[in-house]
């Protein structure tokens, strides 16, 4: 029997990862824009700060992407295991007939 909750969980997990990564990028860009308008520093100092913040944001996005990739790998592995389990169960039921 197909478990709808498992399907929902697999799909929802992938959507949440994409949503989270989008939020990180948009939040970083919004923060950079606010910093530009609120910065009392000179242009050179502001550019330096922007460069540093953009590198930090890049590192955070890379880390988040790696975590998401690992999570997707875990979910895929769980899905393969579940499919194998269901396949073996169905095969066993057919053999009993």
Summarize the helices and strands and which ones pair or pack:
Layout: H1 4-38, H2 43-96
Helix pairs in contact: 1-2
Fold and architecture overview:
The protein contains 2 helices and no strands. It has one domain (4-96). The protein has helices at 4-38, 43-96. Helix 1 runs antiparallel to helix 2 (43-96). The mean pLDDT is 79. The chain has 97 residues and is an all-alpha fold.
Number of domains: 1
- Beta content comes to under 5%
Q: Uncertain runs with pLDDT below 50, 5 residues or more? A: none
Order of helices and strands: HH
Helix percent reads over 70%
Say how many strands there are: 0
Report the biggest beta sheet as strand number plus sense, adding barrel if it closes.
Answer: none
- Provide the structure class: mainly alpha
Query: How big is the Rg?
Result: 23 Å
Oligomer: single chain
End-to-end distance: 18 Å
Shape: rod-shaped
Q: Please tell me the overall pLDDT.
A: 79
Report the total helices: 2
Question: Can you tag this structure with a few keywords?
Answer:
single chain, 97 residues, mainly alpha, 92% helix
What's the short story on this structure?
Helices cover 92% and strands 0% of the residues. It has helices spanning 4-38, 43-96.
């Amino acid at each position: 029997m197909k478990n709808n909750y498992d399907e929902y969980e697999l799909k929802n997990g992938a959507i949440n990862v994409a949503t989270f990564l989008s939020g990180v990028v948009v939040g970083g860009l919004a923060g950079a824009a606010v910093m530009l308008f609120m910065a009392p520093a000179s242009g050179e100092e502001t550019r330096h700060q922007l460069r540093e913040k953009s590198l930090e944001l890049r590192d955070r996005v890379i880390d988040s992407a790696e975590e998401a990739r690992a999570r997707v790998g875990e979910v895929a592995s769980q899905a393969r295991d579940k499919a194998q389990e269901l396949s073996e169960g169905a095969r066993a039921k057919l053999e009993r007939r």
